[in-house]
Amino acid sequence: MMEKIYKILSINPGSTSTKIAVYENETELFHKTVLHDAAQLASYESMVDQLQMRKEAILNCLQEADFSLTELAAVAGRGGKLPPLQQGAYKIDKAMVDFLTFRPIDDHASNLGAILAYELAGSTGIPSYIYDAVVVDELEEIARLTGVPELTRKASCHVLNMRAVALKMAKKLNKDFRDVNFIVSHMGGGITATVISGGRMIDVLTDEEGPFSPERAGRVPCRQLVDLCFSGQHNRASATKRMRGQGGLVAYLGTNNALEVEAKINNGDKYAELIYQGMAYQAAKGIGELAPVVKGKVDCIILTGALAYSPLITGWITARVAFIAPVEIVAGENELEALAYGVLRVLRGEEQAHLFVAP
Ligand SMILES: Nc1ncnc2c1ncn2[C@@H]1O[C@H](COP(=O)(O)OP(=O)(O)OP(=O)(O)O)[C@@H](O)[C@H]1O
Ligand SMILES: CCCC(=O)O
Questions:
Q1: Residue 2 lies in a domain
Q2: pTM higher than the cut 0.90
Q3: CATH value at residue 106
Q4: pLDDT tens-digit readout, 77-102
Q5: Of the residues 106, 135, 207, 335, which should be mutated to test ligand 2's pocket, given the most ligand atoms within 8 Å of the CB?
Q6: Residue 248: left (phi > 0), alpha (psi -120 to 50), or beta?
Q7: CB of 188 closer than 6 angstroms to any ligand 1 atom
Q8: How far is the CA of 73 from the centre of ligand 1 (A)?
Q9: Pair 281, 319 in one domain
Q10: Rounded to the nearest 5°, which phi and psi values hold at 249?
Q11: 146 assigned to some structural domain
Q12: Which of 134, 160, 235, 325 is deepest in the core (most CB within 10 A)?
């Protein structure tokens, strides 16, 4: 029997770019990255205000590729800051779009994924889905405790790429995904990590609990943070920005670009080297913090995300964590592919999409 053809548009809105790709079943037909001008982005008050601009960017990309929306079977968008979700696909509906538009948990670029997918799919009457949203939450109860009963730990990490690389690693190791224990550290503009056991992400280091990263502060001493918030130097928005956007490498070195930092190090800048090495040191400690979750029985540590292209970073981290388990480097991210493949499984009936229930 002839294989049924499904064309799927994947949309991944990032903090500085919008990435799209069109797949025909498992084959990528084309992909495009639109880099958004930083000054232009700064002129928008919230992510949702960028909707029209990003939508036009996507339509322009499709037009340049001479590709019509009418050819598509479905649209897949990166899942954003919704309430805690299960892994896998969710059908995008008006309730989800309204939640992300009017009361998202956090103002995050990924919130635009579902809204853009819903609008583009709606114009031709096809379904749209998110897949492995950033808020997939499979934490065990013990992992939710903080020491302050009114504060509860919640999962939030680079789920899409982490699960995709972990699934591939299990295959490479010839193991069933449900039988392995992996620690995965995604290192991009933000750094997050997870421990996957029994096929579930049973604990997570979010970008506010772990290492500092190119643009985020990560975990900071909490009493000093309270003092800073009440110092009169900050309001809620500016304090949040200092932690996310203006933290990490940006705060120490004035750039979120790791390649610029490496250039400084190559020119003998010892301070830049200390900070860059500090980021790797914290990333390694984050990995170490997750090992006891599975009592040290870790099959493999996976370093992924764009920073995993850096031999300096992966070398420093590996030197500190290789005693826990073998380290595998899977540089970059395959988020567009992971979105398309997930939705393809739904269209083929191999997976069932969940329905979103607004709280
Ligand atoms: N080849 C490379 N070697 C080292 N660092 C790199 C390389 N390519 C990109 N980076 C750095 O990786 C960091 C993250 O970049 P990227 O644009 O992938 O992040 P992002 O997609 O915005 O973030 P996230 O992965 O958190 O969603 C930046 O500091 C960038 O300079
Ligand atoms: C929210 C999960 C990914 C990130 O930290 O940006």
A1: no
A2: yes
A3: 3.30.420.40
A4: 999 999 999 999 999 999 999 999 99
A5: 207
A6: left
A7: yes
A8: 31
A9: yes
A10: -60, -35
A11: no
A12: 160
